[in-house]
Structure formats: C-alpha cells, structure tokens
Amino acid sequence: MSAPLVFIDGDQGTTGLQIHERLRGRTDLQLVTLAAAERKNPQHRAQALNACDIAILCLPDAAAREAVSMIANPAVRVIDASSAHRTQDGWTYGFPEMTQGQAERIAGAHRVTNPGCYPTGAIGLLRPLLQAGLVPRDYPFGIQAVSGYSGGGRAAVEAHEKPGASQILPFQTYGLALSHKHTPEIQQHAGLAHRPLFVPAYGAFRQGIVLTVPLELRLLAAGVDGATLRDCLARHYAGATHVQVTSLEESRALSHLDPQALNDTNDMRLTVFANEEHGQVLLAAVFDNLGKGASGAAVQNLNLMIERL
C-alpha cells in the first residue's frame, strides 16, 4: 500500500506552517502542497481536496466550511483545525484523551474537528471531574487563561515581531463582551450545565498557555478535597502519552507556573493546587497553544487516522 496523501489547505498560516514542520521527514505519508499561485484558486483547491486521503484544514471558519463543501469524494477524510465544526453534529471531537474510547472514535472517523487551544485545557481539567461526579455540572465556573500572542494568528505574530513592536501592550485581557467563540465548545465538551465565565488574555511571549479554574470546596460534595480531585485526574490520564498530572508533593513545591514550559511539544500538564484551610482549590493546565492546542493535536489525530487507512 502506498503512503497516504495528506493535503494541508491553508498551509501558510501559523497552524499550517507548524504542521508542515512536525511532518518534515516523515516517510509514512506524502504531503501535498499547492504552489503559491494555486492556493486561492477554487479549481486547484477542489482537485487537491478530492485527490487526497486526508485533508487538514488550517483556515478561517468560513473558508473551512467552503472547503468541506468542495469535497465530493466520499473516501476523503478531514481534520478541521478551525472552530467551524467543533459543536456540530456529525463531527468527532479530536481530543483523544478526553474520554474512554475517544482515540478509537477519532481513528475511525471521516470528519474530525480539532479542539481549540483554550478548550483543550478547560475540558482536560473539568470533564473527568464532572464525569466522576466530584464537581457538579451546574457549578458557576470561571475560567482564566493567558496565551502567547501567536494565539491571535499570523496577524498577531507579525504585529508583535515587526520593528517597533515595543509599542504593543505587554499584557492584554480581551473577550470582554463575554462572548468568546470557544465558550460554547467548552460548555458542550466538558459537559457543563451552564455557560462558563471565560476570560482570555495575551501576554508578550510567542507561545504557551496557562489556564486556571478556581473551585470553592464548600460548593462541592462533602469530603471532596484537592487530593480527591487530583487523584481523579491521575486515574483518568493514567497511561496517556501526552497528558501528565502533577503529584500533590510537586504542586506544593511550585511557586509559579511558566506558560512556556511545554513549548514545542504536544504535551499538557495538569496541576491541582489546594488550600484546605481556606477551602479553595485551583485547577491549572500548562501546554503549548501551537502544540497540544493546535498543530500537535492535529498531527496526533492524523497519526490515529492513518492507522485505519
């Protein structure tokens, strides 16, 4: 059997370029690209989309929907890195560690939607705890996250890295209308009863994320504490290659979290900080917004899907 053909539609954006880099030197697949003059030509794009085995869409939402509509070949499988299909029926959510059997569902799927960067951390922390009944689905969740500026895409990278970029704010909170497009994705795939209050921010560093979720123990079931929550996460991710859970001893020794600690990897580290005296817990996720939060996740899903070709 010949190596599968993989076409990246939108390969000059931040995620597309990162996927190219991660696939460099692979001999178990053939990477298909279009010349610069052909990338925006609908006929050439349609031909490439229908001739490949797996298409990876690294496009704005509207362009991703358009690309899917161009696919007439029923054998073509799709990984969509945009947010166009993340809450849509008929698409498999591309977070392999999210729940039991999810990796197998991705491996056999024809349509896979790559998770958003922020939702990866929020869902990774919350879904196992809700599934286990340790945190109620109707808890009034507040989620704060700080990402590197590459989370804003190619335009944000250019704005921060061009001459004179020192004029750009070193830190900026955004999404102040409380309508960030990732919020419905978090609610649906984490299993929350209500929309969480999500507050994102960009820092003056290129890539990496720290995402935190505070919890009040008085609002949880009797007997649930930081150790209970941490052990639940550890059981859920036992054996996972790309998600690690910090031990309580390690968490007690930490005085800060570095959002860049896992840059250039496809890993995510989850930590539970607890102050039993005050009855408070802080859930935290650290990962690369260009890795587990984007291109790394896409390649992980691609590897699972290739196994079924």
TrEMBL record:
Question: Entry's InterPro entries?
Answer: AGPR, AGPR_dimerisation_dom, AGPR_type-2, NAD(P)-bd_dom_sf, Semialdehyde_DH_NAD-bd
Please name the GO terms of the biological process aspect recorded for this protein, alphabetically: L-arginine biosynthetic process
The record, for SUPFAM superfamilies, names: Glyceraldehyde-3-phosphate dehydrogenase-like, C-terminal domain, NAD(P)-binding Rossmann-fold domains
Q: What is its main location?
A: cytoplasm
Coiled-coil ranges (or none):
none
Pathway it belongs to?
A: Amino-acid biosynthesis; L-arginine biosynthesis; N(2)-acetyl-L-ornithine from L-glutamate: step 3/4
UniProt-annotated location(s) = Cytoplasm
- Keywords, A to Z? Amino-acid biosynthesis, Arginine biosynthesis, Cytoplasm, NADP, Oxidoreductase
Q: Which residues form the active site?
A: C117
Alphabetically, the GO molecular function entries are:
N-acetyl-gamma-glutamyl-phosphate reductase activity; NAD binding
Start and end residues of each Semialdehyde dehydrogenase NAD-binding domain: 5-106
The record's top EC class is: oxidoreductase
Domain of life assignment = Bacteria
Extract the Pfam families matched here.
Semialdhyde_dh, Semialdhyde_dhC_1
| This enzyme's EC code(s) | 1.2.1.38
Family the UniProt entry places it in: Belongs to the NAGSA dehydrogenase family. Type 2 subfamily.
Task: Write out the function statement from the record.
Answer: Catalyzes the NADPH-dependent reduction of N-acetyl-5-glutamyl phosphate to yield N-acetyl-L-glutamate 5-semialdehyde.
The protein depicted here goes by the name N-acetyl-gamma-glutamyl-phosphate reductase
Query: What is the species listed in this Swiss-Prot or TrEMBL entry?
Result: Paraburkholderia bryophila
Q: What is the lineage of its organism?
A: Bacteria, Pseudomonadati, Pseudomonadota, Betaproteobacteria, Burkholderiales
